């Protein structure tokens, strides 16, 4: 009997209570209603005063019942509607005509209510997380959806609707790093005048080569208001190459690595400027003494993580309404797009240096930024970024193609690479007549020859030297020689000083390739080994001049020391002597590492050889027993760390 009474009570309909409305519940305020159905607060603020339903209805008694969900399904908008509901929901989408079905005519009254309550295929609550718009129904309709108070989705959409009312569109929330503890000026590390001087000098030097910033937007006041981390890292990067800012550079170094970087990781800061700060920190991070402790890839990965949190990867897909968007909004959007392009480029380059798998490069960026530099508000350096994206895309596609080719097709691969790179050069060199006025695009010859050397080295990597085609070796010899000729012309010491680490790695890589080619003079008559070594000496002299005016421990010092050891030994040790010294135990300890570098660069030394000094840091289990051309780029990147060893005789 008791069981039956409980059953009757559970199906009975209770009288409706007056509960607090949704707006008051969201703000956790008392909801008082003196007269009518609208509470005093909603009446005063002109809000939509809606209250949760309290009547327990059996299924099918009201259209609202179809919109309810079970406790096991917390997101009712994902629930598939019934057949009658689906027909009613789609009724509004059909064009009105004379012929109407029986279902349409009989359910005309209820279908309007159901179509407003239950999302259909065309009005489903799906958000396009592109950062500036979504495909939800209009704001007025969102208040017609009845969801229980405990629904997390209702709370989410209520916050979203307030965002839409205030800004007109949905943006991923930024968390600016504007804390006083991160401000280098308020921390008394440097004065406002010194910070302003360093920022201005950075924009005039590093800024032109990097093409990270648009000076029309990224002023000192903008940086100071948006990101203390980016301001600190810009000042640190510039102070490292200013002799009179040596003490300030040391204090900024401690501030960035002891305060700023940990704060970004633990504080949850996220913005376009935070991505730029981490990207710059990775691009200019000095080499460590142990290559396995290098933080460049870790810093770059954190930059990619923050970029994904603010959906930066979708910024290139967005279409800006140039007729209605203000100039400031368009500059802000291009600021985000420029950051994503630079992140994509740097991740691709660092992946090649370190031998890691590139992740961001899987996105076909060039198809979405092909005409990005033709925008009315484009900066004059933007053309260089688009050209670099296309060149990297060519490298990526040809590397993927090489993995699919069967052995014996190296000649076809080399010809295709040569054709595509020459086509790239013609298209971008003809893009503008004043190519030399664009700081980064004027380095195109360096980028072209570097890419060609990489791809040709890949073709020779898995072949024994006796089977190397002479035509591929000749193209490799010419491309490497051209790079070494152009480098001192385009990047003299006063300009090389303002380059990021990738340029130092590329120069070291070309020198190592040239040293190895110089040893092949007896096998290929067209190779002039002495001339190649002279070109290498000129590149080393340019790097040494830049190292003299930069702070100790920077990339300039490390790579200068590394190349000095390689060239010094290669000029005094012939190929036969190097092979002889490999098996000899009478070599002096001061030159042992330098000789090992040359022997490995020439393919005469194995990584697993027990004669390698204990200070050798290049022990990588993923390497084969012999370094081929494709491994030399990692060797060039890791050489800066190896050169800091105490046993390395510079």
UniProtKB/TrEMBL annotation:
It comes from Pseudozyma hubeiensis (strain SY62). Residues 72-86, 95-117 have a biased composition (Polar residues). It is found in: Nucleus. GO terms for cellular component: nucleus. GO terms for molecular function: DNA-binding transcription factor activity, RNA polymerase II-specific; transcription cis-regulatory region binding; zinc ion binding. The lineage of its organism: Eukaryota, Fungi, Dikarya, Basidiomycota, Ustilaginomycotina. InterPro entries: prtT (IPR051089), Zn2-C6_fun-type_DNA-bd_sf (IPR036864), Zn2Cys6_DnaBD (IPR001138). This is Zn(2)-C6 fungal-type domain-containing protein. Residues 20-51 form the Zn(2)-C6 fungal-type domain. The keyword Glycoprotein does not apply. Residues 54-117, 125-144 are annotated as: Disordered. Its main location: nucleus. Transmembrane segments: none annotated. Keywords: DNA-binding, Nucleus, Transcription, Transcription regulation.
